[in-house]
Amino acid sequence: MSHSLRSTAIASSALLALLVPAEAGNTTRAQSDAFAKKLAIIRQHAEQSPKSSRRTTVTENELNSWFVYRAPALLPAGVKDPKIVAVGNGKLLGTVIVDLEDVGKSKSSGGSLDAWKYLGGRVPISLSGVLKTKDGRGQFELQSAQISGIPVPRFLVQEIVTHYTRDDERPNGIRLDDQFALPASIKQIDVGQGQAVVVQ
């Protein structure tokens, strides 16, 4: 997988996974391999046939299997066990285990009223929202967020997402509301129940 496609896929997946009850089905190595092959086909189609259309269906079980068997080495340190549920009509539910102590250390001012200094440990973060894509652009609209089952404000989620999505290309990380370019000549991603169709 190319660096740009891999980094975009990982950043988007991490964001969506940060984005719920982990109700995804069973994960298997075969489904992980199937997802990896589909990613390769999507990339190859973009490189060889940019003007022809293609639709590739990926299932949530394939994606979640890929998270288990192939993604751990690619995810940021402090982010583990992402899972995504495709509800349908663009809606996604996701959960991920995040090390809040790592985030808190980078954010804490040390003051007695600084909430970050009280946050710590590995905790599940659950998010739900709607993925909207069109004409090669995407946007995720966050609807709700919880940390260990407790509702949390949007700004706290943004701080966590920013911390874990910073890289050389995005020194300020990903902003929740920002539109983003879809990789590999993807025009749109239609999220249905239990699956998504990638349209190139």
Provide an overview of this structure.
The protein has 200 residues and is of the alpha+beta class. It has helices at 3-18, 29-48, 60-69, 100-107, 154-165; strands at 55-59, 79-88, 91-99, 122-134, 137-147, 150-151, 180-181, 188-192, 195-199. A hairpin with a 2-residue loop joins β2 and β3. α2 packs across α3.
Provide the fold topology:
Blueprint: H1 3-18, H2 29-48, E1 55-59, H3 60-69, E2 79-88, E3 91-99, H4 100-107, E4 122-134, E5 137-147, E6 150-151, H5 154-165, E7 180-181, E8 188-192, E9 195-199
Antiparallel strand pairs: 1-9, 2-3, 3-4, 4-5, 5-6, 5-7, 8-9
Helix pairs in contact: 2-3
- Average the pLDDT over all residues and give the rounded result: 83
How many distinct beta strands? 9
Secondary-structure content class: alpha+beta
- Indicate the radius of gyration in whole angstroms: 17 Å
Net shape: globular
Task: Give short descriptive properties of this protein.
200 residues; alpha+beta; 3-stranded antiparallel beta sheet; 9 strands
The gist of it:
The protein is α+β, with helices and mostly antiparallel strands and 200 residues long. It has helices spanning 3-18, 29-48, 60-69, 100-107, 154-165, and strands spanning 55-59, 79-88, 91-99, 122-134, 137-147, 150-151, 180-181, 188-192, 195-199. Helix 2 packs across helix 3.
